[in-house]
Amino acid sequence: LVSVLSSAIIVYRLPWTWKCSKLLMKFIHAGLNTIAMILAIVSMVAVFEYHNAKNIPNMYSLHSWIGLTALIFYSLQLFLGFAVFLLPFAPVHLRAVLMPIHVYSGLTIFATVIATALMGITEKLIFSLKNPSYSASPPEATLVNCLGVVLVIFGSLILWMASRPHWKRPLEENTKVLRPIGGTSEGTEAESTMTNSSNVDKSDLRISTEAARKQNLKFDEAGQRSTM
């Protein structure tokens, strides 16, 4: 879940993907998230089956609480992402409003997954290392502690890449975008559509105003002729 979810997060941020179409990147983003979700469900089922086979209580530790919470919110994130941003049924203004929330919740879920992994490996060390114990710092403990440090560094790099403006996907050429406060590059499609529709409305208003002005001029000329 850590590796595949991180790939789904930064797929828009990689410079060599900026030449690909936005629709293709949407499908890649959704596909990676789907793979991560399937793997997470398989691992969750395996954990419950292992606990039941060994007569180990389920859902008693903080690791299990946070892990299950992250999985539930991740499933909601994936479902809403498909319904709002991938399928062409959601209104444009709804996509623009939900895009910052979608980005923030995705990064929060990723940080929660990192925290769950850190708690899980620590819990496993405490239960597994008996002689010598975890407190004696055997080589296994040092190895897994280093793994935890690597996870923290890796998660920090992913969050840094996802939050830096210069890593964002460039705007499409010849597209003027009105970016809302807190908006991200992922919302450019919806925002550009709103901008285009606004320009169309303004042009229609100018045309109708011009027609009304010409009609008033005709009425004035007709009135002057009747008066003369």
Automatic annotation (TrEMBL):
One GO molecular-function entry: transmembrane ascorbate ferrireductase activity
EC numbers on record: 7.2.1.3
Catalyses which reaction(s): Fe(3+)(out) + L-ascorbate(in) = monodehydro-L-ascorbate radical(in) + Fe(2+)(out) + H(+); Cu(2+)(out) + L-ascorbate(in) = Cu(+)(out) + monodehydro-L-ascorbate radical(in) + H(+); monodehydro-L-ascorbate radical(out) + L-ascorbate(in) = monodehydro-L-ascorbate radical(in) + L-ascorbate(out)
Keyword hit for Heme: yes
Keywords carried by this UniProt record: Cell membrane, Electron transport, Heme, Iron, Membrane, Metal-binding, Oxidoreductase, Translocase, Transmembrane, Transmembrane helix, Transport
Predominant location category: membrane
Residue span of region Disordered: 178-205
Protein name: Plasma membrane ascorbate-dependent reductase CYBRD1
